[in-house]
Write a structure and sequence with these properties.
With 288 residues, the chain is of the alpha/beta class. The protein contains ten helices and 14 strands. The chain has a six-stranded mixed beta sheet, sandwiched between helices. The chain has a four-stranded antiparallel beta sheet with strand order 2-1-4-5, with helices on one face. Strands 12-13-11-14 form a four-stranded antiparallel beta sheet. Helix 4 runs antiparallel to helix 5 (132-143). The protein is elongated, with a radius of gyration of 21 Å.
Length: 288
């Protein structure tokens, strides 16, 4: 199965922020969640993929083609949803669609009208009077209406109400079930990704922490809890971030068997969510 997206040792230097040797790939027909706290580098990665900013090193291939040399062909097969879509605010959705549609040879007007109706979007109201949720719905309708093979979404659910967030996730899941499309979904709302993603790429401070199958990640990581007396300089080396209180400690591990061997039966373990994993890795930054 071919890779739809492949980044190899990609670097970007902003002076005060450095994206360091980022490498990961996404196969056809899967959803990848790109997670990390705000400022971790998620949007920078997406801008590099879309050739909106110039990388300082490494390579990016989309559909096994160079993302710069074959940019026009590649972008005709991509549906792109920004975290803050920019449209001519004095135009309505139909007018914007008439501007955008001619750029895509596979534009499907029936699909567009279906999505506009599904999202309950007004045809004649100008964009300036849209809520943020309505703007995002319009952007998603446009992105899905030209049968893109690869859909890239940068924080598409940020600021949306829980009902529409769930509707959007269900829609993305249906898109993949019916066709061999791939999705890169950037967000800091990990519960959204946990519901639909096949793979997770976690970035922190410009570095990839891991890029693996979601089920594998959730199987390997766990929370461990016990009395504070169990912690010392040696045992803390087996923890990824530690949170203490008067009742004891809670920490993250990526090897439950090893943790049990170190701490013995004096700890209890619990399932770690993606949010837990992000929290404890972030907490470790301030303790190192």
């Amino acid at each position: 199965m071919e890779n739809v997206l492949e980044l190899t040792n990609v670097r970007k230097n902003y002076g005060d922020f450095y994206l360091q040797d980022v490498s990961f790939s996404l196969q056809e027909g899967y959803i990848m969640g790109l997670i990390g706290p705000n400022g971790a580098g998620k949007t920078t990665i997406i801008k590099l993929i879309m050739n909106l900013i110039i990388k300082n090193g490494g390579s990016i291939k989309i559909f096994d083609k160079d993302h710069c040399k074959d940019e026009v062909e590649i972008k005709s097969r991509i549906g792109f949803v920004y975290d803050n879509p920019h449209y001519y605010e004095h135009l309505n959705l139909n007018q914007i669609k008439k501007i955008i549609a001619p750029f895509y040879k596979n534009w499907d007007e029936d699909m567009f009208q279906h999505l506009v109706k599904k999202f309950d979007l007004p045809h004649k109201k100008i964009i300036k009077k849209f809520s943020r949720g309505m703007v995002m719905k319009g952007a998603i309708a446009i992105a899905l209406s030209h049968h893109a093979d690869f859909i890239i979404m940068d924080e598409p659910t940020s600021g949306l109400d829980p009902i529409f967030r769930r509707e959007l996730l269900d829609l993305l899941y249906d898109v993949l079930q019916n066709e061999k499309k791939s999705i890169l979904f950037s967000t800091h709302i990990t519960s959204d990704i946990e519901r639909i993603a096949d793979f997770i790429t976690f970035i922190l401070d410009g570095k990839i922490i891991f890029s693996s199958a979601k089920d594998e990640i959730l199987e390997n990581y766990a929370l461990i809890k016990g009395e504070n007396a169990l912690l010392n300089e040696e045992t803390e080396n087996y923890c990824i971030g530690v949170r203490r209180n008067s009742f004891g400690f809670e920490a993250l591990t990526n090897n439950v068997l090893e943790a049990k061997a170190v701490f013995g039966k004096q700890i209890v373990t619990d399932r770690a969510t993606l949010e837990d994993i992000m929290y404890f890795y972030n907490a470790r930054r301030y303790n190192d």
